[in-house]
């Protein structure tokens, strides 16, 4: 058994892990850094896997960093199934690898991300033509399956069909990608609307119509009760509405869960994700966490849950790296809120914050419907707390800033949800607050004088 020594061990080679490694290296020039991940590929943009299937990008262009990144940053990258961490001994500061080796570390970061949730559907497990859709290899496997299925179906004189179980962001992006290789895609969703976490009923209805125009049929309120087929191939699904649907392949995209089992076995405290302090240290000594695996306090409604979003993973990775490297006055992580930006065919969707507020809880809602577009703005106590922008992408950054900075809408001139407010439309106090948020520091250094 070989034992490596590392000042910093980072478990996970995606957004949070790579950002943390860079952050540590910037403040610990001589430290030894080891990154391990069972995924064999250099760090890549996981949200881009559907675009790879569509032919809109390449594996090379998906890479987060240049080919020489690990060498230039003096990071030892141990990638592949043999380097998966199977056990952490927090007292001994040792991580055991699947291949039998071990890493002794000074500090460790858990950036293990999410793992697909496999729904308890009879007959789902063990089928060769059932795929997840979370990693590059998942996408490549589904891509190969789709091409095989269509070739066989056309050879038999019929159209090919894929079933996607789950109409969340991952499921719908998988459906869009599959539609470029499969004749018909059927999307099942147990909730009463597609994208139940990021859309309301009206917006979901509009988007569902767009998908239907591209041979993607969504059945909200319907899921799979059983997978049909003999042996190791699925040939159809029995639906919860009593009907059956034939298919050539299945993508299971019901959702994801924090990939926290490794940490929990080591004794880490977990709620809906790993519980961390403001420095992103877990309850284990010298073990930190960042990204999808962390339980986050929603800054808008106070709820505690993972925030499985790429920008959040990058931010947490950067801050965890600073705290691990012992940077004085490193920024504390105090939570965040959901922000999503995604496109489906020719439709754009941006959402943020609270979009389906509870009734009779002091919220106000302003809906703007125009030909081909839908916008919804949610307010509380005179401040914007959420929005949906479907086919209306302009001004999203300003609206997100209004939420983040808790700007009083009364400080804006005119209609803030018509033409976007420019900086001059803000009051003097609000302009200073916006500038200070963007450029924190002494206002006199910025050329500002104290106002009476």
Explain the overall architecture.
β4 (85-89) and β5 form a beta hairpin. The termini are far apart. It contains eleven helices and 24 strands. By secondary structure, the chain is α/β, with parallel strands linked by helices. The chain is globular. The relative contact order is 0.11. Helix content is 24%, strand content 27%. Strands 1, 2, 3, 4, 5, 6 and 17 form a seven-stranded mixed beta sheet that branches. It has a five-stranded parallel beta sheet with strand order 8-15-9-10-11. The chain has a five-stranded antiparallel beta sheet with strand order 20-21-24-23-22.
Question: What attributes characterize this protein structure?
Answer:
452 residues; alpha/beta; seven-stranded mixed β-sheet; five-stranded parallel β-sheet; 11 helices; 24 strands; globular; disordered C terminus
What is the overall number of helices? 11
Percent range for helical residues? 10-25%
Overall geometry comes to globular
Largest sheet data: 7 strands, mixed
Strand content: 25-35%
Q: Mean pLDDT, nearest integer?
A: 92
Poorly predicted spans:
434-452
Radius of gyration: 24 Å
Number of strands: 24
Alpha-beta content class: alpha/beta
Distance between the termini: 69 Å
Give the topology, please:
Layout: E1 3-11, H1 15-27, E2 33-37, H2 49-54, H3 59-62, H4 69-72, E3 75-79, E4 85-89, E5 94-97, E6 102-110, E7 114-116, E8 130-131, H5 136-155, E9 161-165, H6 169-178, E10 184-189, H7 201-212, E11 216-220, E12 224-228, E13 236-239, E14 244-246, E15 249-252, E16 256-258, H8 261-265, E17 287-289, E18 295-297, E19 304-306, H9 310-324, E20 339-344, E21 347-353, E22 363-370, E23 373-380, E24 383-390, H10 396-404, H11 428-438
Parallel strand pairs: 1-2, 1-6, 2-3, 6-17, 8-15, 9-10, 9-15, 10-11
Antiparallel strand pairs: 4-5, 5-6, 7-16, 12-13, 13-14, 18-19, 20-21, 21-24, 22-23, 23-24
Helix pairs in contact: 1-9
């Amino acid at each position: 058994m070989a034992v490596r020594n590392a000042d910093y061990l980072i478990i996970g080679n995606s957004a949070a892990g790579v950002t943390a490694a860079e952050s540590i290296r910037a403040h610990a020039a001589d430290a030894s850094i080891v990154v391990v991940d069972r995924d064999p590929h250099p760090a890549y943009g996981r949200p881009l896997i559907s675009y790879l299937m569509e032919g809109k990008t390449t594996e090379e262009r998906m890479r987060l960093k240049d080919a020489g990144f690990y060498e230039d940053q003096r990071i030892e990258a141990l990638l592949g199934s043999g380097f998966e961490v199977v056990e952490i001994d927090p007292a001994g500061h040792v991580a055991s690898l699947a291949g039998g080796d071990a890493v002794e570390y000074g500090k460790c970061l858990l950036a293990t991300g999410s793992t697909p949730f496999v729904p308890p559907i009879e007959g789902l497990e063990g089928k060769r033509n059932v795929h997840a859709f979370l990693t590059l290899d998942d996408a490549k496997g589904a891509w190969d399956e789709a091409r095989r299925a269509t070739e066989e179906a056309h050879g038999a004189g019929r159209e090919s069909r894929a079933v996607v179980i789950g109409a969340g962001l991952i499921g719908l992006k998988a459906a869009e990608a599959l539609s470029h290789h499969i004749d018909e895609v059927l999307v099942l969703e147990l909730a009463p609307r597609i994208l139940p976490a990021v859309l309301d009923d009206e917006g979901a209805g509009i988007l569902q119509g767009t998908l239907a125009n591209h041979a993607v049929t969504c059945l909200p309120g319907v899921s799979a009760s059983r997978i049909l087929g003999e042996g190791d191939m699925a040939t159809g699904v029995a639906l919860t509405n009593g009907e059956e649907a034939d298919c050539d392949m299945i993508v299971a995209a019901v959702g994801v869960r924090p990939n926290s089992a490794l940490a929990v076995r080591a004794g880490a405290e977990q709620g809906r994700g790993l519980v961390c302090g403001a420095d992103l240290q877990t309850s284990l000594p010298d073990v930190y966490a960042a990204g999808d695996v962390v339980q986050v306090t929603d800054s808008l409604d106070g709820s505690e849950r993972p925030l499985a979003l790429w920008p959040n993973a990058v931010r947490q990775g950067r801050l965890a790296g600073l705290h691990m490297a012992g940077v004085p006055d490193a920024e504390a992580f105090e939570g965040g809120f959901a922000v999503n930006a995604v496109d489906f065919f020719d439709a754009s969707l941006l959402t943020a914050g609270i979009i389906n507020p509870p009734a009779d809880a002091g919220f106000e809602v302003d809906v703007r419907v125009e030909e081909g577009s839908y916008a919804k703005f949610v307010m509380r106590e005179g401040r914007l707390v959420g929005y949906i922008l479907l086919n209306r992408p302009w001004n999203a950054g300003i609206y997100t800033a209004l939420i983040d900075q808790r700007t009083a809408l009364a400080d804006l001139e005119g209609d803030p949800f018509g033409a976007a407010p420019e900086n001059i439309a803000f009051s003097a106090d609000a302009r200073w607050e916006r500038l200070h948020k963007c450029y924190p520091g002494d206002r006199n250094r910025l050329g500002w004088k104290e106002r009476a």
